[in-house]
Design goal:
mainly beta, six-stranded mixed sheet, disordered N terminus
């Protein structure tokens, strides 16, 4: 399924007020991915394994003629892994020249967040996880982490 996400809503004076995010569940935690980085969401299917690749990259997908590395966000974020379920999805992203398929346990919703709803990352958070996050917010009175796609790409390109 392909999403048409509004990138952001702006005020008359041009100042950004709200951005759209895709809300996903990764293991038992909730994360968002900036809507402008999301190309589409697809059902889970077995990726084609690549010999010698690290566990966080379980294989590749051919999606509409584009070869995509699959990134298991659970392993990248050091979270528990469970077998695929009916809700397991790939979130296909595009940033710059990089296309990736993020394996998530569930796609929950599209949400709009204003800049004032985003909070800084606390100092006590695990360093591996915190360097992949842009900010934190709360939705339905539960914490939600905002993934920084550029940081994820840099981590994957430079090793773990």
């Amino acid at each position: 399924m392909t999403f048409a996400l509004p990138a952001e809503t702006t005020r008359a004076d041009g100042e950004q007020t709200v951005r759209s995010y895709l809300l996903v569940r990764v293991s038992h935690e909730r994360y968002t991915i900036l809507g402008t980085d999301v190309r589409e969401v697809t059902r889970w299917r077995e990726p084609v394994p690549v010999p010698g690749s690290p566990p966080v990259l379980p294989g590749i997908l051919n999606q509409r003629g584009i070869i995509l590395p699959v990134v298991d966000l659970r392993l990248l974020l050091d979270l528990p892994v469970s077998p695929p379920e009916r809700t397991t999805r790939y979130v296909i992203t595009h940033r710059g020249e990089v296309d990736l398929a993020f394996l998530v346990d569930e796609v929950i919703d599209l949400v709009n967040l204003a800049a004032h709803q985003l909070e800084a990352i606390p100092d006590g958070l695990d360093s591996q996880q915190s360097r992949l996050l842009q900010s934190l917010t709360r939705l339905d009175d539960q914490p939600v982490a905002v993934l920084e796609l550029e940081a994820v790409i840099n981590t994957l390109q430079n090793g773990f």
